[in-house]
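User: Here's a structure from my thesis project, written as structure tokens. My advisor, Dr. K., wants to see whether a designed sequence matches the one we expressed. Can you design one independently, without my sequence as a hint?
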């Protein structure tokens, strides 16, 4: 483990602290909800949802956070402004404290919602996702005129996924015609609580740089840093083929002689039989990729579907305890009142 020489910023989101030296505060997790084809979404344009199911999912996250000391945020996803309004209004009714990420691939939906959260007084809980190389002058103006002061700032450089390439995006610009870096643009937008996202890229396309960039971001800027590292496994073509479906044997197992007997024997050791085997094969790297990031100092882990909260939060609690124990030997100690080491040891 290691201590950064650069002073580390800590942002306070209604009591949830994000940032600092490794070990000082527990890693913050963000669970995705209302994502594409999520079963709780009944109409993705209007934002109609199965409220009891959605609330049960969030309640489980909160229960596990209380149990382990690992805090949660909610990553709310939508492609339409009215859906965002519906989703955020629902969330505010069941939880009027926790910060949420406003996440969309549609700029118009982001801008619409940025204005709306300002109008209804929820901008202080909103984390904009994201300021990146494709941001337009219009979107910059909308952010500047809003009350939103927190944003994900993305270090994605499609032409150069190396650490210097990612740093150039943050500091200098030059990507997608941007004259400024993403951090100066964030400052222009009135963002006082930037969260640097190291831009998880697929295996073979600079994934190693996504991890090394964590060290660079915290060492150079001192800002809270993290990312959606599960996107690496989502984009891993081989793993998707290996996982297969309930109707398609895995590629790996199919290479063995006597595979039918082998698969039958293996399936007895997993709940769900063959589907259980495939799920285990998928979930191990899906969770593990995030732990690599937190070992390197990541403060925010956007781990994907909210249904994965149980394996993610228990693994993260283990990692945070190990990190803190290691940091204590080099003079860094916990500053959080709530931490897994107080709950689980």
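Assistant: Designed independently from the structure alone:
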């Amino acid at each position: 483990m290691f201590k950064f020489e650069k002073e580390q910023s800590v942002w306070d989101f209604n009591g949830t602290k994000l940032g600092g030296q490794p070990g000082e505060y527990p890693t913050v997790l963000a669970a995705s909800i209302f994502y594409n084809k999520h079963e709780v979404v009944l109409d993705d344009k209007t934002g109609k949802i199965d409220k009891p199911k959605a609330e049960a999912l969030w309640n489980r996250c909160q229960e596990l956070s209380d149990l382990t000391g690992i805090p949660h945020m909610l990553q709310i996803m939508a492609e339409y402004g009215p859906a965002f309004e519906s989703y955020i209004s629902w969330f505010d009714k069941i939880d009027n404290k926790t910060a949420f990420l406003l996440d969309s691939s549609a700029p118009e939906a982001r801008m619409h919602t940025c204005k709306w959260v300002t109008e209804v007084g929820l901008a202080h809980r909103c984390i904009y996702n994201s300021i990146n190389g494709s941001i337009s002058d219009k979107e910059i103006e909308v952010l500047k005129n809003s009350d939103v002061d927190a944003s994900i700032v993305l270090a994605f450089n499609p032409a150069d996924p190396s650490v210097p390439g990612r740093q150039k995006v943050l500091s200098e610009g030059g990507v997608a015609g941007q004259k400024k870096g993403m951090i100066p643009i964030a400052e222009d937008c009135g963002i006082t609580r930037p969260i640097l996202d190291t831009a998880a890229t697929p295996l073979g396309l600079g994934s190693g740089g996504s991890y090394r960039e964590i060290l660079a971001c915290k060492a150079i800027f001192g800002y809270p840093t993290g990312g959606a590292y599960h996107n690496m496994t989502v984009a891993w073509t081989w793993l998707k083929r290996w996982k297969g479906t309930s109707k398609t044997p895995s590629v790996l197992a199919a290479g063995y002689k006597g595979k039918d007997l082998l698969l039958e024997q293996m399936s007895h050791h997993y709940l769900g039989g063959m589907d259980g085997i495939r799920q285990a094969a998928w979930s191990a790297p899906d969770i593990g990729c995030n732990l690599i990031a937190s070992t390197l100092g990541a403060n925010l882990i956007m781990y994907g579907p909210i249904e994965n909260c149980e394996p993610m939060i228990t693994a993260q609690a283990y990692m945070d305890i190990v990190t803190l124990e290691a940091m204590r030997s080099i003079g860094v100690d916990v500053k959080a009142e709530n931490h897994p080491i107080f709950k689980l040891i």
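When you compare it with your expressed construct, this may help: Residues 10-240+287-343 form a domain with the TIM Barrel fold (CATH 3.20.20.20).
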